[in-house]
Design a protein that fits this description.
Blueprint: H1 11-16, E1 26-29, H2 35-43, H3 63-72, H4 75-85, E2 94-102, E3 116-123, E4 135-138, E5 147-151, E6 158-162, E7 169-170, E8 176-186, H5 189-208
Antiparallel strand pairs: 1-6, 2-8, 3-6, 3-8, 4-5, 4-7
Helix pairs in contact: 2-3
Length: 215
Amino acid sequence: MSQPDDGYLDYAALAATPLARDPYDHFVVPGFVRPDRLAGVIDDYPEVPGPGSHPPSELTIAGRFAALLAEMDGPRFRAGIEEKFGIDLTGRPTMFTVRGYCRATDGKIHTDSKTKIVTVLLYLNQAWDVDGGRLRILRSGDDLGDYVAEVPPHGGTLLAFLRSDTSWHGHEPFEGRRRAIQMNWVTDADVVAYEQRRHRISTAVKKLNPFRKAG
């Protein structure tokens, strides 16, 4: 008799989700964090000192949130991403950052840096009832209204895309709590060291200047 799957992620939903190629390779899996596990992960979501991206090393990572990160960094999830995009990520390091709050100035259109191979965003808000803060898959770098998909950042939804010079994305302004994990496979370990050091400095500054939390 097979053992029950006690993980956090819905791999069957990942496998069943088609890859969209317009305007670049991406896919969205609503409810990728299993519904019976989502509330516990959110309960254990770490406190972050303000907006921006924070490396896990600078936060208190524990409990079910820590277990989720470990599973995302495991071979089963990597294999699912490799199969979906038709790529080999062997030897490519991973990099995680955690976000907890959004500024009104966040969400400007961009493509991600060339050192990133795959970007994964996992949204960990229970509900999202506002228009702003919904990530858009864009056709160009100069029109936020020209999009093929809009992803509400809630319910354990997963968004993943192959980074390219045309992987434009952004969102309408929002200010307040917006919880998300960003995971990247990157070109080499030097990228991880540089980016994590940069984010650590930013986090340290925010700890010295507490953020007035809205929402």
